Every structure is written in C-alpha cells, then in structure tokens.
C-alpha cells in the first residue's frame, strides 16, 4: 500500500473521489516488526488537522492471503469503535472502502519489540514494568469478560501495544464476540487467525472454537493471559509443556524469570480444566489483595501500580494520602520509565497543579523534575504552557514556587512569552505586602532580563526598582542595588546616564552597611558605563563621603573604588594636551610670581601661594592711554538698578564687582563673579552672566536726583531712633530661608524647562553631587546646606521693603507693620506692564511712609509715658 504514502497519487485520488472522504492522516514509515504477525499492517502516521502523532492499522482485502479475512477485519473495527476503556487501544478515525480499512488510533508500538528492549534493564526494573503492564491487561480483560460479557479470544503478545506513556493497551479485537450475538465470529472463524492453534486453549484444541460458546466467557482469555505471562518474562523460551497434550501442570523448573509471587496464580491460569481455571478478574483480585496468603499482593506491592492508582484518584485522596504519594514520586522519580514519567505522571501532576489538587510548593518541583525527560521540541507544550498560566494565580505559594524554581526553566522561555504573559503578572510582586514575595521578584529579574523588550527594560522595570530602593527591608534595598548594577550594561545610553549614578548614590546613603557596600561595588562593576566627564563630575563626588564612613568595611571598599576610578582618570588625563589652546583675550594669571605650570605639593606651599592676589596681571591688559586717565564711574542710566539700592557715588570709578545672576538656584546660591568695568571700553566679565532679569533687585532705573534721600534711608533712621540696641537687628544679614523676608521684591524668573524623566532616581548635575530630594531612606549625617527656593516656585511674601538694604540685618516686625501688611498685602511685579509696575511701586512707597509715621507716633507715645 505504498501508494497511500503519496496523497497526490492517482490511486489515492480515486479512493477519495469514490468514498467522498478526505484522509484524516498522512502515512509515515511502516512498522516492519509487526509484519505478518496479524491480519493488519501497522504504520506510523500524522493527523492532518493538528499534526498529532498517530498509528494507522491497514487491512487490504485485495491481497490473496487476506481475501477471506475481511469479516474478521470488519469485526475488529466494529468492536474497537464501540469499546471505550482506559486500558483498551484508543480509536480515533477510520477510512473504509469495500476492500480496504484504515483505522487511525493513538500512537502505539508493538509489545514484542518493547520487551526485547527491556532485556537490557536491571532485573528489578524489568520485573516492575512487566507486572505493571500485566495489571493493565488484567483490568481490560476483566472489563471485557464481566462488564461486556464477551470473549476476546485472541490474547497474545501481538494483541498488546505500548502507548506513548508506556502503558499497555489491549487490541486485536478481530474475533471479540458475545456468545449471545448472532454475528459472533469467534465460534465460526476463530481458527482463521494467524497461529491460532499455537495460542488456543486445550478445550479449543479438543473440540474447536465452537466449544467456547458453552463455557464461561473468561475461560479462553484466562488461558491466553497465562501464555502472555510466560512470553513476557521468558521472551526467548518456547511454549510451556502444559500447552501440549496431555497438558501437564507447570513445574518449578519451567518457571524461568516469572516472579515467585506470580507463579502460583500463573499455574491456575493454565489449568486444563476450563471450569477450574482462574479467571482474569480473580487473578486481578488476587494480585491486589495483601491478605490472601502466599501468592497474593503482587500487584498491590508494585510501585508503578501504586503510583497510577494514586494519580487516578489524586483529587479524591486525603491530604495525608497526597503527601505520601508525592513523597513516593520524589524518591523514585529517577527509576520510572522515561515515557511513564513524561506522559503519565507529568500530565497528572500538571492537572493537579493547575486545578489546585495540592500545594504548588510540593508539586511544582516534581513537575520540573519529571519534565527533564521531555524532549526540547515538546517542552514548551508539555511544561511551559502550564507554568505560564500559573503566573496569573493570586496564590502566594504558587508564585513563590514559580520564582524559586525559575532557574530551571527560564532559559527555555521565549521573549514573546515573557513580555506578553509573564511580565504583566510578575510585576505585581513588586507591590506585594509580603516582603519575601518582593525580594523573590527582585531576584528573578536578572534571569529574565535578556528577554525583556526596550520599554520594559528602560522604563517599566526601572520605575519599580526605584520604589524597591525605598523598601523598608534592608535586604531588598541591597538586592535592588545589586540588580541595577547587573542590569547596567543592558540599559540604553541615555538611561544609564540618568539612572545609574543617582541609584548607586542613594545606596551609599543607606543606613544598612551592606547596602552601602553594594552601592560601591555597583559603581565599580559599571565603570565602563560612565563617560570620563561623568566619572569626574558625578561618580567620584558621589562616592567621596564614604571614605570616612563609620564602618570600616565601607571605608575599605570606598578606597578601592576611588582608586579604580582615579586610575582611569589618570590614564585619560595622560592622553590630554598640557594646556588648552590660548585665546588672545585670556589673561595670564600668576600667583605670587609663580609660573603657571608650577605645582604645589604641600599644604604650607599652598597657603603661601594663596597669600597674594591673582589680579596683579590684569592691569597689563589696559591700554597705555587708559592708564593716564582718571577713574570715572561706568554706571549710568543705561544700567538697570534696583530702586532699593543706594545711589551711585560720583567719586566711585574704575573697576567694580557686579552680581552675575542666573535664573536657577536649584544647584546652590548664585556665584559672585568679578567683572572688570572700564570707562573707556565695554564691560567684560570673566564669566558670561545671564541677560535675564530673574535675579535683579527691583525693576526701575536708578533715581536721577542722586542727592534725594531715599525712602529706605528714612525708614532706617526711624528704626534706629526706636531701637535701643543694634539698629540692624540681632540676626544675620538676611536669612534666605525665612518666609518673612524680602524675597517678594524679586521678579519671578521664567519657569525652568521640564527635566527629562529620571524614573524616580533623581537627576545629577555637574555642579551638584546628587539631586536626592525624593529619597525616603535615612541618610548618614551630612553638613547642612543653605537652600533657596527656585524662582519658578518662590512664594510671594508680603514685605515692608522692596529689596534688602545694603548692610542691613534681619529685624522683627512690629505690630503696626503687621497691621499694615494685612491692610496692604504685597504682590509680585512679575508679568506687569511698565505702567502697572510704576503704580505698584508708588503704592509701596506710600506704605513705607505710613509705616515710618507709625513708628514715629509710637516713639512719641513712648516718650510721653
């Protein structure tokens, strides 16, 4: 029937057209070991719709030797189609014509070759496997004889098959008949089977197959079961002597490899008297009984039989029985046949795991242990599909078991499965209320990191890790830092610059000593992730304070880390030029006559070098004509000045120091930049100041009448008269953190541009070590730094003055001033037009005059008292 192997052949096309059916399978290679053993030919096949492996039994009546056997083939098809039992060959599909029959069943292989293969196993393993198989056949025969009231009539090695799970399946239903059935073929055509006389019982050899109609239905099958036991344990022996007339009972010498526990029952199965013969049902009962004396319990003590019985009734068993079965599976897992473990035990365990049959912590390790024998091609469908579903389970025990054993199956997961099915459920573990789940989730990330997509790696994951660095558990914070260090090389370039330094710097401030050590080690492990500029401006400054950590373990690690980074800087510095390209306008500054390239090697030398001024060479840049002129002020109407500042003195001229303002205080107080101003040329600053007015005091030009007494002077005089102590107050010049001071006089600067997303780790600028304001972890004591509110968020605070007076100090506000402030609340001039600003300044001037009058009135009443 080779033409069936090619579906495009003319014969198959004709077959399909005549029958009106499509073949549901594709024929594969023929199983040659089964040739001429029965009326059927066996092929390996593949199911068309889903690619499942199947077996195809073929009968062709066109062959002369099989022309008269068509009734037997049709009987076998009819009985197999209607008989459903776990230990009977599973029928799936059939393609039938007038002269051909193709039966598709589950994938099986003949028992004979399988017995030969098991000869290489140990005696104990082979005996356990054979007894377990005979148990399954006994169950099937008991079902046919008792429940179906039928006689199989063809029990032999060639009628038994091995399924993919290693279980024995009963087939060969060619002469299966019910004595009450008028169409029974056993009693009329039983002798037409191949080798029928060899396997027939004594009563059949004496009176033919028609004699079975008057005997119990189990008589012939019991004799066939006895011969099956003989050939199973002694495959190389001939028929026992009892199979030939005068049918003497078996002797101990003829036992061969048959176990002694089975031999007494074996002899009863071969009893020549059919009415005294042991039936398959009684044989099964004897084997499962442990109280029937000698020759009993051979099935009940078999470990494979016990495992199958336990798995079949697992969901109905008590907790103690489940625990006992799982323990037995764990202890003997390596001794189970491969196919039995992979296709019998494993599916049962997965079913129990998926539907809550027992604790996941107990079953999942067994699932993975038995899964080692599954082929790589089948592993995703047999194991991974079920494990992935379990990630959606809210049970903490299941999640913990999955994460604990993740190393055993992580490498077999594909990227799509991880991103689409595992990650959405896995990330819930970061927010779990149980610390051990959070920690296990953090540890599992490194095993799946190579399968995350860009969004998860550079966005979603980092947001969770930022929260984990603030976890109450020290071990979780430490492991999070270690994880970020290991993930560093996998992050994108921009993400590395935003995240790594703030994350590690936060760990360095952790109160847990090992978290600080982990932060230093993470810096060292990710050294190649930092640009040389970042090392100098961010990394080293972030680590510097750990050099004097309270713990020696941290200090030692800090010095090692610092040495590593400084060495890298030295190597880079060695490749740099000695000096930058000189600019014509750049002055050559000398300190106390030293050369620009001179280096100071001691503290004393540095103190001496700084004893003089570095401005002595600036005068050399002035033109000769300028040196002969008198010094005049460069301040004029063209320069914006605050109204609260004192008027310029005409006697002042030459060089002046002006405040270089910026619009951002977030990185520290504004620097005072020395600026050289000359009446003969444009003003030139050593650093380029900002041209915005965000830091300018006031908003109007300087008063044209320099001799007029400014309002702030009148108020200051009144305060001096009423104050018996320090007229400028007892505090510092001005507390920049005090909300009651004169910050309202500042114009509101333009809002700073929104910073790029830092994923919760903060931003690190070149002039600040770490922007760590969001850090919730307690930090080591750090010297307090004065802070000022940024212009974008500076509150508008009522103030009696438009700007701080030169040299004035902070003073307490009098009750009259409080009333005046309540009556005339100050407002910011930001966003006002010139006319509105003028009106606002006039109102403030009137306020000041009223306050001065109130102070004078207060003094007057005090004098009268």
From TrEMBL:
Biased composition (Basic and acidic residues): 833-865
Xref: SUPFAM superfamilies: ARM repeat (SSF48371), Protein kinase-like (PK-like) (SSF56112)
Sequence ranges assigned to domain Protein kinase in this UniProt record: 1-299
Residue ranges with Pro residues bias: 778-789
Chain spans, region Disordered: 661-695, 776-865
GO CC terms of this entry: cytoplasm
Range of residues in the leader sequence: none
Bias-annotated ranges (Low complexity): 674-690
GO terms assigned for molecular function: ATP binding; protein kinase activity
Database matches in PANTHER family: N-TERMINAL KINASE-LIKE PROTEIN, SCY1-RELATED S/T PROTEIN KINASE-LIKE
UniProt protein name: ARM repeat-containing protein
Organism listed in the record: Lentinus brumalis
Lineage: Eukaryota, Fungi, Dikarya, Basidiomycota, Agaricomycotina
């Amino acid at each position: 029937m080779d033409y069936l192997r090619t579906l495009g052949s003319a014969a198959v096309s004709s077959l399909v057209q005549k029958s009106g059916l499509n073949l549901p399978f594709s024929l594969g290679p023929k199983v040659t070991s089964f040739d001429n053993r029965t009326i059927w030919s066996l092929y390996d096949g593949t199911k068309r719709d889903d690619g499942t492996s199947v077996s195809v039994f073929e009968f062709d009546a066109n062959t002369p030797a099989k022309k008269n056997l068509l009734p037997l083939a049709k009987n076998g098809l009819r009985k197999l189609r209607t008989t459903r039992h776990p230990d009977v060959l599973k029928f799936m599909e059939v393609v039938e014509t007038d002269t051909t029959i193709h039966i598709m069943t589950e994938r099986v292989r003949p028992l004979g070759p399988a017995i030969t293969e098991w000869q290489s196993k140990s005696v104990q393993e082979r005996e356990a496997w054979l007894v377990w198989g005979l148990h399954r056949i006994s169950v099937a025969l008991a079902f046919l004889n008792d429940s179906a009231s039928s006689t199989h009539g063809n029990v032999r090695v060639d009628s038994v098959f091995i399924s993919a799970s290693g279980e024995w399946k009963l087939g060969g239903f060619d002469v299966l008949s019910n004595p009450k059935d008028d169409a029974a073929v056993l009693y009329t055509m039983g002798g037409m089977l191949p080798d029928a006389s060899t396997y027939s019982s004594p009563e059949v050899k004496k009176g033919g197959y028609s004699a079975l109609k008057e005997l119990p239905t189990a008589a012939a099958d019991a004799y066939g079961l006895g011969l099956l036991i003989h050939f199973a344990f002694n495959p190389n022996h001939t028929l026992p002597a009892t199979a030939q007339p005068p049918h003497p009972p078996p002797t101990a010498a003829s036992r061969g490899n048959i176990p002694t526990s089975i031999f007494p029952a074996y002899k009863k199965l071969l009893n020549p008297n059919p009415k005294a013969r042991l039936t398959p049902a009684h044989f099964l009962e004897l084997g499962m009984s442990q109280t029937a004396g000698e020759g009993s319990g051979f099935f009940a003590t078999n470990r494979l039989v016990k495992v199958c019985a336990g798995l079949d009734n697992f969901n109905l068993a008590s907790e103690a029985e489940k625990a006992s079965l799982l323990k037995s599976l764990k202890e003997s897992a390596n001794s189970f046949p491969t196919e039995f473990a992979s296709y019998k035990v494993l599916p049962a365990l997965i079913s129990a795991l998926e539907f809550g049959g027992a604790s996941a912590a107990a079953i999942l390790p067994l699932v993975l242990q038995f899964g080692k024998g599954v082929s790589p091609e089948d592993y995703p469908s047999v194991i991974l599909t079920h494990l992935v579903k379990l990630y959606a389970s809210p049970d903490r025990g299941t999640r913990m078991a999955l994460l604990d054993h993740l190393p055993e199956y992580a490498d077999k997961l594909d990227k799509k499965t991880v991103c689409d099915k595992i990650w959405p459920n896995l990330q819930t573990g970061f927010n779990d209320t149980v610390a051990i789940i959070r920690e296990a989730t953090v540890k599992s990330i490194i095993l799946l990191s190579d399968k995350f997509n860009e969004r998860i790696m550079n966005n979603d994951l980092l947001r969770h890790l930022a929260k984990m660095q603030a976890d109450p558990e020290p071990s979780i914070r430490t492991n999070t830092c270690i994880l970020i260090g290991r993930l560093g090389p996998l992050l994108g370039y921009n993400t590395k610059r935003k995240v790594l330094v703030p994350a590690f710097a936060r760990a360095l401030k952790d109160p847990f000593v090992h978290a600080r050590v982990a932060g230093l080690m993470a810096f060292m492990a990710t050294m190649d992730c930092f640009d040389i500029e970042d090392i100098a401006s961010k990394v080293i400054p972030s680590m510097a304070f750990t050099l004097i950590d309270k713990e020696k373990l941290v200090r030692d690690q800090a010095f090692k880390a610092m040495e590593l980074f400084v060495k890298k800087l030295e190597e880079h510095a060695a490749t740099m030029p000695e000096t930058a390209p000189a600019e014509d306008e750049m002055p050559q500054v000398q300190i106390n006559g030293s050369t620009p390239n001179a280096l100071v090697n001691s503290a004393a030398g540095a103190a001496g070098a700084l004893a003089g001024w570095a401005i002595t060479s600036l005068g050399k840049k002035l033109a000769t004509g300028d040196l002969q002129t008198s010094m005049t002020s460069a301040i004029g109407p063209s320069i914006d000045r605050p109204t609260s500042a004192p008027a310029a003195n005409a006697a002042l001229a030459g060089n002046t120091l002006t405040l270089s303002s910026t619009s951002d205080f977030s990185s520290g107080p504004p620097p005072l930049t020395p600026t050289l101003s000359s009446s003969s040329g444009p003003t030139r600053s050593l650093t380029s100041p900002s041209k915005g007015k965000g830091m300018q005091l006031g908003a109007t030009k300087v008063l044209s009448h320099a001799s007029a007494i400014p309002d702030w002077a009148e108020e200051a005089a009144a305060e001096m008269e009423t104050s018996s102590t320090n007229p400028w107050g007892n505090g510092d010049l001005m507390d920049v953190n005090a909300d009651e001071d004169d910050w309202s006089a500042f114009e509101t600067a333009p809002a700073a541009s929104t910073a790029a997303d830092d994923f919760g780790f903060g931003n690190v600028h070149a002039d600040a070590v770490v922007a760590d304001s969001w850090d919730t972890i307690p930090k080591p004591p750090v010297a307090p730094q004065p802070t000022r509110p940024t212009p974008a968020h500076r509150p508008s605070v009522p103030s009696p003055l438009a700007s701080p007076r030169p040299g004035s100090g902070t003073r307490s506000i009098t009750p009259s001033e409080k009333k005046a402030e309540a009556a005339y609340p100050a407002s910011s001039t930001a966003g006002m037009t010139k006319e509105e600003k003028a009106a606002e300044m006039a109102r403030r001037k009137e306020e000041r005059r009223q306050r001065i009058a109130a102070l004078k009135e207060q003094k007057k009443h005090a004098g009268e008292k």
